[in-house]
DNA sequence: TGCAGTCATGTAACCGGTTACGGACGGTCT
DNA sequence: AGACCGTCCGTAACCGGTTACATGACTGCA
């Protein structure tokens, strides 16, 4: 039994396809008796409208494309979850396509979305903007998440990485740290760059005269471990660590502790993101409400699709410093709040 | 500038739409000169084929529907990641739709997918099968993940929860536990039920004569904490805990430790899932390779779409016991391997 | 020269919906 | 009776692709 179409229903209800369409879509210019016949026929045939055909003729797909890099557990999960929540609230589907790092997959993925989504959410913290601009069909509404730069022509939503980094450094200095090491993220990543930038600015401001210390990393836990080993072999007076993300902070924390270094007494540690694990390890960090970013991104895109005008094009999500055990003694939690 | 269509390209290249289609799709019955003209015209117009129209006429969408309950962080993330990886490898998109617990959303979501996906992956550990069967368009290939029962007519993939539970209990008994408490998951959840079932069977087998102890939970961390508080107020000789998932195990672990109970010396603890955090808390658990399940599910569904016949309809994923600190002293790791 | 066969191309039907337009019908008002 | 209006419904065009079939040009061969 092939899938029933609207014409089958029409035949069965002895009306035209137009009437079927009208009846099923609740238009009011249909006699009640006709509507009933149509509905009955549809049920008997198990008719389900063909969404693809519908969206072709309406030129409206009720779907949003989501193009993400191959990112890690929590971030991916939370982002998509937030998006999905808002999307289903607004009656949209999410069409997912990971754009693996290979790069040239991005244009392909974007092209393949044309004609099946009404708008697109792109997260590409490492893709050069001109490439993005070129790959995005210019007529397809898009919203950029953490794009490397704020393309003036495209709305975007970003994390205020500098503000987060500054808050973290301010806090570390506040509890007495002076020689603070920054474990950086990958250079091509915009978040990583901004966090480093924030670190430098904050050091200049809150710890003037103390020279910044950088350890290159890649957002992976191993980088944090490497940084820790480096410190263990030559401490250089480091009494504080600010990692560009939680995973590196955790790698560092675990390795230092395993080597008997007292955290936070000898070295205080802060991360960035507030992954769920951070709470368990009592890691001080800059909380980024990822799901919220996803929701907000979808909400803004859908608003635009539905014709609502936007006041602000480039939004910034403010991270929130969460002080925990790795920067505060067991009962000195509130000390941190007053610090500095 | 409205989006260019194939007819625009045809006009510009001074050929028919048929030739454009042939040229761009790489059919060989096109003169090279014509193909070049078409490609040039397409580039000049920035032509991107309309995937919706294409899939309508080919009756093939190159997309898979994914219907998931509103599940938690890691699980969701890993599952979708695995699916996405395999899907993009096979040239398919993923169309996501969380079916929130409200229940009657499921049929709606499934209906809306008709005509825009070629097949569907459904994860519904709590939806009664007859409802599923009724909601699934019978012509749409579907693969069930952790469905409450194995619907004989639908291929499925499941976790072998009983095997996992048995391995955990066997291990706990092996290291000397006798009075083992099971913190159960929600009753309507099939995984939870099977894990409890496995617990009972394993107790009967490995600890005969010792009566099983059940604490009702809901997969949330708080349930583990409640179980711990219960134990703290009346220990009843409990020397081992097997939680139906890691989050409850973690809640229990943290609460017991906070109260000064020595883990694993006084009470050993094992969980289920192996969420990333488990490693950091050194939690013994039954590892479920979630991403692998997602990959496998997509692979099987795509195989079927492409006409490959299936030998096994109902597959079971085998969890793997990972022994860590919550059931073994610092240097007694391998002891566990020999235990019993 | 005429005919079959090959190749490139165009015409139009089709996928499954939506909807502009117009026709048929019945009622109301002058 | 005739003009006018409103309601309900059917015909057919359309969304943007693919493709079966027809057409015409060209080749090779008798």
From TrEMBL, chains A, B:
<dbReference type="GO" id="GO:0003700">
    <property type="term" value="F:DNA-binding transcription factor activity"/>
</dbReference>
<dbReference type="Pfam" id="PF13377">
    <property type="entry name" value="Peripla_BP_3"/>
</dbReference>
<protein>
    <submittedName>
        <fullName>LacI family transcriptional regulator</fullName>
    </submittedName>
</protein>
<dbReference type="Pfam" id="PF00356">
    <property type="entry name" value="LacI"/>
</dbReference>
<keyword id="KW-0804">Transcription</keyword>
<dbReference type="InterPro" id="IPR046335">
    <property type="entry name" value="LacI/GalR-like_sensor"/>
</dbReference>
<dbReference type="GO" id="GO:0000976">
    <property type="term" value="F:transcription cis-regulatory region binding"/>
</dbReference>
<keyword id="KW-0805">Transcription regulation</keyword>
<keyword id="KW-0238">DNA-binding</keyword>
<dbReference type="InterPro" id="IPR010982">
    <property type="entry name" value="Lambda_DNA-bd_dom_sf"/>
</dbReference>
<keyword id="KW-0678">Repressor</keyword>
<feature type="domain" description="HTH lacI-type">
    <location>
        <begin position="4"/>
        <end position="58"/>
    </location>
</feature>
<dbReference type="InterPro" id="IPR028082">
    <property type="entry name" value="Peripla_BP_I"/>
</dbReference>
<dbReference type="InterPro" id="IPR000843">
    <property type="entry name" value="HTH_LacI"/>
</dbReference>
